Amino acid sequence: MATASAAIYETLPPARTGITFKHENGLTERRRLPESIAPGVAILDYNGDGRMDLFFVNSKGTHALYRNDGNLKFTDVTKKAGIEGRDFGLGVTTCDYNNDGAPDLFITAYGRNTLYKNNRNGTFQDVTREAGLDQKGLWTAAVFFDVDNDGAEDLFVGHFVDYDPASEPSCMYGGRYHYCHPLSYAPFPSTLYRNNGAGKFTDISETSGIASHKGKAFGAVATDVNNDGLLDLFVANDSVANFLFINKGGGKFDEVGLEAGVAYSADGNPRSGMGVDAADYNGDGLQDLFVANFNRERFSIYRNRGQLVFSDEAGPTGIGNLTQMYSGWGVRFFDVDHDGDNDLIVCNSHPDDQIEKLSSTLKFREPILLLENNGGKFTLINSRAGDAFQKDWPARGLAVGDLDNDGMPDIVIGNTGEAPLLLHHTEANAGNWVGLDLKPRVAGTVIRWSAGGIVRTRLLNAGGSYLSADDPRILLGLGSAKSADWIEAQWPGGEARRLPALAPRSYHRIER
């Protein structure tokens, strides 16, 4: 636990990191919808050297891949890596679609998405067409997860609204254009692809049941909400009901958002869901769901009551009062102080960069919120989080990872139309930890560990946050314990494996 005077995060300036990337959102006077959505960011080890590299999505310009050279120094290797980009970039996720152990990149866009195969030599190859993923649209969240437990990562790609710039609605106030609310656009179905192996995907949206539900997808996370060993899919929609797709096996899903209590607000209205995540925030062994909503809607933290029933605990947890006036995007459950439970970070910004001309109570730039979990209730700890938490940002995507291998969770945030924000965790008073580098890292894997006699469980999910991808390694908080009593890993469909004694304050590669 930090002392009152300790700053948890320091802001890393470009002069220190060497990162000079700036997002170009293609801002026009007309204020066209895609301009307000991006960018996402990704943390990955693209070259297998044990250091986490960074990928930044650009919308009108070139994407950027930065190699981590150690000591928080990065080198731009975009051109050398062969990443050119196309169309209007929005988000990014990492995957291993061909099971070769190297992280590949998938970039969502207004236009066509791009799948970059990692050639394992520092370069990437655009394999979108041969993979069968070359489809036009307004694509947002992308989640790679194994739908049918056949060992290959399938792909869900969230689609936002039915959008055509030729028929863009006019939202003009006070003699100037503003971004239109999503209610001005019709919903559109998302897409689910089955990974056939050999680098090929087949669209199974119709047969799976995904295509039967038109939405306005922004965030999505794959998790197991009913502990049946199959990964379900939660999708946050903007201005229409959220979707909870329950995996029935065999590539089939049932949508149960309404029955489960996660589709609407308590008074029966759809909200404007953007970023999402899933975790067991109260330690009862069930995956709970979080949605960052629009201002005046409060963010949602859905407690899993079992039997596919959820209750929005925004009030009792303190989340509601803390988020009432913000519009949330990137969000992640993570253990900021290594005490073993799930804390929370969420970055915010109003979608309309000119909102202050229309409202005296709302701002375009908004603060990042760092929330500490205290027995299932959340407390704002911005006052000791660092200088970045005292300022406002035009934030969108957010990713969590360890950029200097010190075991502390750093933060990377993509700002729309501006440079990204890198936050380095410097808290010396955090608890003990042990790091796991699972090979392969498979969503649906269950990690159990005991520290100081307290047993905790973590389910590895896929997707989440907003248009972004985290460090794939796992940090287990041990609190004041000097080491873990024991650690178990259970990959999907396999026996639980008790790991040998693992030294604390270091990472360990674990093979299945």
Question: How does this structure look, described?
Answer:
- The protein is mainly β and 512 residues long.
- 6% of the residues lie in helices and 40% in strands.
- It contains 7 helices and 40 strands.
- The strands form 10 sheets. Strands 6, 7, 8, 9, 10, 11, 15 and 16 form an 8-stranded antiparallel sheet that branches. Strands 21-20-19-18-36 form a 5-stranded antiparallel sheet.
- The protein is globular, with a radius of gyration of 21 Å.
- The mean pLDDT is 96.
Helix percentage range: under 10%
Q: Report the end-to-end length measured between terminal Cα atoms.
A: 34 Å
Determine the strand fraction and express it as a percent band.
35-45%
The number of helical elements comes to: 7
Largest sheet: 8 strands, antiparallel
Record field, number of beta strands: 40
Give the overall silhouette: globular
What is the gyration radius calculated from CA atoms?
A: 21 Å
Structural class: mainly beta
Unreliable runs = none
On the 0 to 100 scale, the average pLDDT is 96
In short:
This protein is mostly beta strands.
Topology record:
Layout: E1 9-11, H1 14-17, E2 41-44, E3 53-56, E4 64-70, E5 73-76, H2 78-81, E6 88-95, E7 104-112, E8 114-118, E9 124-126, H3 128-131, E10 136-145, E11 154-159, E12 172-173, E13 176-177, E14 188-189, E15 191-197, E16 200-203, H4 205-208, E17 214-215, E18 217-223, E19 232-237, E20 243-249, E21 252-255, H5 257-260, E22 276-279, E23 288-291, E24 300-306, E25 309-312, H6 314-317, H7 319-323, E26 328-334, E27 343-348, E28 369-374, E29 377-380, E30 395-401, E31 410-415, E32 421-425, E33 432-439, E34 446-451, E35 454-459, E36 462-463, E37 474-479, E38 486-490, E39 497-498, E40 507-511
Parallel strand pairs: 33-40
Antiparallel strand pairs: 1-32, 2-3, 3-4, 4-5, 6-7, 7-8, 7-10, 8-9, 10-11, 11-15, 12-13, 14-17, 15-16, 18-19, 18-36, 19-20, 20-21, 22-23, 23-24, 24-25, 26-27, 27-28, 28-29, 30-31, 31-32, 33-37, 34-35, 34-38, 38-39
